[in-house]
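>> received
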Amino acid sequence: MPLGAAAAVAVLFAAPSWPLRHAVAVPNVGWVHARPDGVGTGWVADADRRLIVTCRHVVGEQKKVEVFFPEVRDGALVAEKAAYLGSRAELRKAGRLVDGTVVHKSDAADLAVIRLDALPPGIRGLPLANSEVFPGEPVCSVGHRGDLDTAWNLTAGHVRQGGRLADGYPWRGATLAKGAGSLLLQLPIAEGDSGGPVLDGSGKVVAVVTALRTRAPLATVGVSAAELRRILEDLPSPLGGEGGRRPGEGKTPWVETLPFPREAHSPHPQSVSLWGRGENETPYAQLAPATVWIRPTATDSRTAGVLVDRRLVLTSHLGVGPADRVAVLFPLLKDGRVVGERDAYADPVGLRQSTAWQTGTVVGRDPVRDLALVRLEAVPAWAKPVALAESEPVVGEAVHAVSHPTGTEFAWCYAAGVVRQRGKTHVGPARDDDPKPVANVLQLPAQGSSAGGPVVNDRGELVGVLAVRDGVQQQVGYAAALGEVRAFLAEQPRRDLERTLSRLRETLRVPRLVALLWAAEADRLRKDGKPWDAAGDTALSLDPACVPALVLRGHARLAAGRTDDAAADFDTALAADPRCRPAAWGRAEIALRRGEPKTAAADLARLLDPDPADADTHRRLAAALVAAGDDAKADTALRNAVRLDPAQLRPASADLLAAAEATLQKAPDATGRAADALARGLTAAAGGLPAGAARTRLEAAIRRATAFADAKPRLAALREIAANQ
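>> returned
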């Protein structure tokens, strides 16, 4: 690239001018005192109506507050808090200490609006942003953190993620900002900063600083400007008394000479891609679609990973644990943006149908480097792998990461930082005699379930993988270095070949191969009405662990009432193949016959993990849950079964009828209870049908049947509906 072009690019992608933004913001930012409830930050959002915005938890139950505005002496800002607290009378006379009345409080957004008795001269207010900000975009805030002796402090950081704040946060026995549109920020704040404006690169307010996520590293919550805009638009005008500025108010030279951004909108410094791929493509925009969320089989743990080849995901060894199979979640996209709320990923069936949920097999492990490799069965068409960098990053080089930190409602969170140092160290649990791989020490929040997340340079090239290191500071992260990643990936083809040859040798053993042929013959005979014969015995004599033959014999024994023998066959089959569905179904049926529905449900639930797309298993799980008395989960399983395969409606209806008959056999006077359970189950199953005439007719029939006040005709009508599916 010619020198002139390089200089132009450097200017284009220069960081926002935070000193300028700070100077512009400061005159509009107040220090709010709502004693004894709180001290925080507020800022002028509407100068004409003399309105400033702060947090609900700052003003508490107070109706009257005091607001300090910045004092300038000899052209310089007076920043020391003591200078303000010791000069109340002088500041009040100069119009720098102003009284205000709280005119609006919102628990739903943790926002409060204060109407001031007057405004200092020169105040214009800070404009609200009209557009969303993206993870990875730089932001700053101005506030008065309580552990500093200075006020009007600037804090710079980045947007990590955005979305609805599902859980909110506690305040004096209440929950604030629950469900509010919010930004998760990499912004180190403290008590006293609450209520401060979060400014984008153009100087517009994109959020209001509200709270820290104490369970997550360097995670600050800011309520979005969109929430504030709705509140301000709903406020009556004027709010009592005379609004606007006093006649003849002048402008102070300090404010007037600043290049305040009067334009309606100016581009963000990073609205053009760092890598030249279109608007609003920060490093996050390229990295997030290649970052996955991994859930090992039969666990509640989560870890991150990154797509490094068309079907290969690189992740943390400790994160996947001993699991051989894992669920791999790609991000959901809405309007071209990543959906960051964790709640959006709570429906495995829906995710599977959208291709966001894929199943993978762990094909490589390295506990020393804390690396693992997962091979996927398929990937979404839009997913693009991240390329490996040509060289290691140097100390001080900027890096970017995406992961899923614990302690927040958000996933696919961005984090920015620099390389602090490089060296050999243990990156996971290790013995003293284990070799120490090379790792990068990062100034970057990367604890909790961040392990396995990608670390890239400014060009979007992979330079490391976040590693597990508990008990370190919030702004210290570790990543397996690029050289260790390359060495690990280079070893995999040899290991793949060894595994393939081992499996081939095992499969081609003559007794096993012949046993499989005899098992196939036994299955053919079963379909002809011969449930078990000499062909199956021959198969098991050649290979006592022949799974197809064990399953056939197990079901034959189960039909004959020999449950203990059948259970032994199913257990042996599952020991050889833990994912054998017919064996798991058989063992669940035995558990139901033994009066152990919870055991049956647990076995079937494990079968759906990590692949939730098995409609038949969902239906069997629903029957087990009905027997266990877990109606809510049973309804979900029924709905999922029919969602995945509408043909499951018929056997599901038969299962519901059988459950109703079982209820009546145990308690003949339980007609009402049997009718209610049948109605609930049929309604759940109907909810799984696609929208259309068939679903409408079935739901209408259920409504007519349940309209009978008497339990007996209600049950009779529901029986007829179930029998005709």
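>> The radius of gyration is 32 Å.
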